Amino acid sequence: MTTETRLRIAMQKSGRLSDETQQLLKRCGLKLNVGDRRLLAHVTNMPIDIMRVRSSDIPGLVMDGVCDLGIVGDNTLEETALERELLGQNSAYTKTTGLNFGGCRLSLAMPEEFNYTGLASLDGLRFATTYPQLMKRFAKENGINVDFCLLKGSVEVAPRVGLADGICDLVSTGATLEANGLKEVEVIYRSKASLIQGVELAPEKQAILDTLLPRIQGVMKAKESKYIMLHAPKDKLEEVSNLMPGKETPTVLPLAGRDDLVAVHVVATETFFWETMEALKALGCDSILVMPIEKMMG
Ligand code: ATP
To answer: Cα separation of 76 and 104, whole Å?
Structure first.
């Protein structure tokens, strides 16, 4: 086997995106052992290699054609693209598909005691950030003048030690900000993980992606969907169908020895809340089961 005919995918080696990326690839049927120290892991059952690197290196590796695909946060992707544009380096890529993990926001945060009265109150201040390009773009679009200092980690500590007035950093729950005496004042960018590719793939690599992509989409759809089974009163079928989240038509099956009840099966493509189950129960439904789906296609 030659490396030219294998699709090379860059993923984060360790960090917030690595576990979910690895799980996604496994659920797509890729057999790989990334548990060891190998930085280039061979997939044994498909012509694919996985390159495990720092998140911040992934966009550049894809843009330079070293890797064919990459799984990376939109924040890292956008920051790198802006930086490379500025340096006159190749910054072209295609977003193959968005992924449903790695959700976070890039926010401006100030010390709790700061009197925030809108963006204008940030004018002339200095921010510590790992994302200077995204921050500069936001400041320009919003007509404020801010200064920044680059920190690759522990950004939250900057105001306390006098390095900056505020920070511009990634937030998911806000707990880290709170623990460091900071409050979120503006969201400047919302991010999720994405699968990206260099602009054009060789036909044989495109063929591998054509097999992989529907699997990725199937895994994501399955993750968001639930299989619901219940017994419903025959005369309440319409009300029961209306309560089902998602657009699938329910399957209705007879129940042995029961003229008043039927079995209803449906794939729900949206969140199935306890409130919906309670409403179904109130309609006279029984034996309500909500089950995870492992794979989906079509
Ligand atoms: P690396 O160390 O691999 O170069 P990193 O320092 O950005 O990258 P992580 O902190 O693991 O590594 O974050 C990886 C990505 O996870 C982020 O770029 C972002 O897209 C996503 N993410 C999701 N939630 C958060 C969060 N609360 N804080 C930081 N990143 C988050």
So the answer is: 12
